[in-house]
Amino acid sequence: MNSSGNVTDTTHPVVQAPMAGVQNSTLAIAVCNSGGLGSLPCAMLTPEQTVDELTTLTAATSNPYNVNFFCHQQPVIDAQHYSQWLKLLRPYVAELAFDLPDEPPVEGGRQPFSHAMADSIESFKPPVISFHFGLPEKDLIKRVKSWGSSIWSSATTVDEAKWLAANGADVIIAQGYEAGGHRGMFLTDDLTTQSGTMALLPQIVHSVDIPVIAAGGIASAQSAEAAILLGAAATQSGTCYLRCDEANTSDLHRMALKDAAQYQHTAVTNVFTGRPARGIVNRLIREIGPIAAHAPAFPLASLAVTTLRAKAEAQGSTDFSPLWCGQNASGCEDVSAATMTQRLAGV
Amino acid sequence: MNSSGNVTDTTHPVVQAPMAGVQNSTLAIAVCNSGGLGSLPCAMLTPEQTVDELTTLTAATSNPYNVNFFCHQQPVIDAQHYSQWLKLLRPYVAELAFDLPDEPPVEGGRQPFSHAMADSIESFKPPVISFHFGLPEKDLIKRVKSWGSSIWSSATTVDEAKWLAANGADVIIAQGYEAGGHRGMFLTDDLTTQSGTMALLPQIVHSVDIPVIAAGGIASAQSAEAAILLGAAATQSGTCYLRCDEANTSDLHRMALKDAAQYQHTAVTNVFTGRPARGIVNRLIREIGPIAAHAPAFPLASLAVTTLRAKAEAQGSTDFSPLWCGQNASGCEDVSAATMTQRLAGV
């Protein structure tokens, strides 16, 4: 039913998941040059920074690559709701002896894909453009399609997969419940709809007639092979690459990823950004989460927490850090991204 | 690392999951006689009923079979907590025009495995005895081991797998988050610890040196093969068998299992029994769940809800029915259990 072909146009059907905040073009280049599809996360970059990164990337590899954007709606902040959120954070602010403004932020952190961004990247005509949280407006889709770019997006339910296939996606990433980082969910905010990869992947494969890439819990050549058996055209792994030499993962985050007692307990939480995302359970998740009713809408929750995090990390604490991680960190190792890509490819 | 061998001692490495309430020896016999391992759920049976069922089963098949018991602690009921629970249910009781006693139940529904039960089944020396919610007391384990029975139990985390291997289990069932029915969790009640099969299975396989059976989302020969690739010695499927001719699944439950809009949305809920279990999202889950703080401890929550359910089902409604179902009901079909077993075995 699915025309898999060589969906990634790479030597190995291995995609390095875009991971904003812990990697840049360095990791993507290493993956591209070792036969996988490297990804550049652009959600936290300005158009200028994106151009810089793409310039670096395209100078270092002639292989296909993926640029990733978010396509959320920018929220309108509710001042009263925000004050409830600050009330939750004040004890931590006091503990770390700094201060937070009472005023809610106007915008923050992550920008959705826009025509301004499209203007900036147009000359690169990226081979693959992947989106998280659905797809951008139709005119933007039409525009990037005109470049010949392949459009990918994540589905966390069968309904989302069908919607993406009907609305312009060329490839679907079936994001199982195991996956680290932000859930791509966009037709629902009900976490009970989120399925494990073993259940989600074959049901999506049977529901759409475009290629499906498996994500969530893929941490070895065996799990990649298992996903292919279930109909995946390729697999996407993120967590596996977090301890690679070319990632920017902080030392504190890397230490958590070496400690089974920590990495074997993750949770889907909204306390870091306002949207559900999977990370290692730490103090903030434990004390006000995993799902905090008063977390401001994505991405505005991240602003105050980012300050908290910086103060705590300066003292060597990960109490307030988003330690993004999937449910299978057993494949993480201090190796090069080339070694990891080959390991996932089983070569 | 794992000595898989032929852990089920059957033609196919396919286990039919024990499903109390929707099957008896008829389904188990059909599976046993078609080359899989049939299971007899005994948690809701008296010792006398269990003997009757085992007599029927052993007269109809000479192949190995599994008997399943729960091994929870019987709870002490908190009258005040229970009155809060009744307050939640009263509107439904009024709607269905009947009445519930104010007094909390003293016991109910499901009994843990006991010496009285062991007395009853001793002469059968069941080839496999599987437990849910950990393991029974050491003297009970010693007793059933003396019969030559293989002891199996479910693990939902790596910690639980290690505990089971250290405390007398011969085989571990890695129960992924996708699985329908009761979560086997026993070292924690924190649902964030529950992993998808793709992540849980290989991590358990690498953590213990006894055979591991995969459960959760296994709905086809392909998914069974994928689980074997990930190190499983066999696979266990429950949901797949729910629409089989030999199951006792109610017509209302079967109808829900034919409707993708229903079966593609399940949730882990405690509103039916007091313990987290996965079923199709219906009115009771939606309105007071999925996790109700005032649900009485397992199994006492089931008593009042069972009455509600009976009244509603008599009117053709599944509003209050536990429609147990995993996250992958796509393999369900109105076929014989022999056909389903062969399908899962890929023959």
At a glance:
The structure is a homodimer of 347-residue chains. With 347 residues, the first copy, chain A, is an alpha/beta fold. The first copy, chain A, has helices at 25-32, 47-60, 79-95, 115-121, 138-146, 158-166, 197-205, 221-229, 251-256, 260-263, 283-288, 301-314, 337-345; strands at 14-16, 38-41, 65-70, 128-132, 150-155, 171-175, 181-182, 212-215, 234-237, 266-269, 277-280.
Question: Could you tell me the strand content of chain A as a percent range?
Answer: 5-15%
The Cα radius of gyration of chain A reads 19 Å
CATH superfamily of the largest domain in chain A: Aldolase class I
Based on the coordinates given, report the CATH architecture of the largest domain in chain A. Answer: Alpha-Beta Barrel
* Subunit organisation of the chains: homodimer
| Biggest pleated-sheet summary of chain A | 8 strands, parallel
* Greatest contact between two chains: A-B, 42 and 42 residues
- How do the SSEs of chain A run, as a string of H and E? EHEHEHHEHEHEEHEHEHHEEHHH
Please give the share of residues in helix of chain A: 25-40%
Overall pLDDT metric of chain A: 95
- pLDDT < 50 stretches of chain A: none
Structural class of chain A: alpha/beta
Please list the strands of the largest sheet of chain A in the order they lie side by side: 1-9-8-6-5-4-3-2
Output the number of helix runs of chain A.
13
Return the CATH topology of the largest domain in chain A.
Answer: TIM Barrel
Distance between the termini of chain A: 28 Å
Please tell me the total number of domains of chain A: 2
CATH class of the largest domain in chain A: Alpha Beta
